[in-house]
Tripartite-type tricarboxylate transporter receptor subunit TctC
Amino acid sequence: MTLRRKMMSVAVASVMAAGVAALAPGLAMAQNYPSKPVTMIVPFAAGGPTDVVARSLAESMRKTLGQTIVVENVAGAGGTIGTARVAKAQNDGYTLLLMHIGFSTAPALYRKLSYDAANDFAPVGLTVDVPMTMIARDNFPANNFAEFLAYVKANNAKLSMANAGIGSASHLCGLIFTSTIGTELQTIPYKGTAPAMNDILGKQVDFMCDQTTNTTGQIKANKVKAYAVTSKARVPSLPDLPTMDESGLKGFEVGIWHGLWAPKGTPQPVVDKVQAALKAGLADPAFKNRMTELGAIVLADQASPAALDKHVKSETAKWGAIIKKAGVYAD
């Protein structure tokens, strides 16, 4: 072997050794992961729609990971406080984020964010998509969506529309609804879905657009009036409820997707393990049945980092334009 070839062989070996050395910590971490409970941050209040998804998913993912997944609610500022905590968490796979469409709307809604949604997270995968329902207090005058729409337009100054706070799913649905019908409405922001629903039940506020994971039980118990769902097709758990499209608002569709993230820099082998647990969790019959009961659509075929990353980019551009047009901002 010539001297030149020997030198090249040594150089290649050195590069390979360096690469192995760089991968070694991540590989070692992945081999032992998880060796303790994992925390799944939900940036909204306990008992809300995202919390319901998270707790069901955490239990199903536990079966694959072999460790408890503790759901921690870190509510406030439209989900941005809890999201920021995950962005700043140690990137070892023991802190995860279960967040919804608000991940894509926050950059446009908030003038200042303490995190960079595009660069501070490692995507794991999409989880579920949840339709919305238009509901009202049980003594609301309208008996179907056509009557509801006519009454809202005729009495908009007297009526109040609840939402769970700026950036919440109910707030976003409200933006689309008012824009679509061309009518300004008095909106009442609450600190979470639960207090908003309580005031619907208590007849303190008139109506709200919210996720089926929060409204299905109340609808089936006849505690609220339900007028339509925002999905393309009717929801199996609420078969008698028409879509907004078939009720006259052509093309109206709002789905609240949910995704799972880890902090940026989490070793890829660890992300791979979390993703494997996510895919298994989404396939778990117990989870699928629970989501079906609540009208949610399981996105098992999109439970990958690439699918979530692509979806976030598309949704960020879409909602950025909508929010800019509406002129709605939060400090």
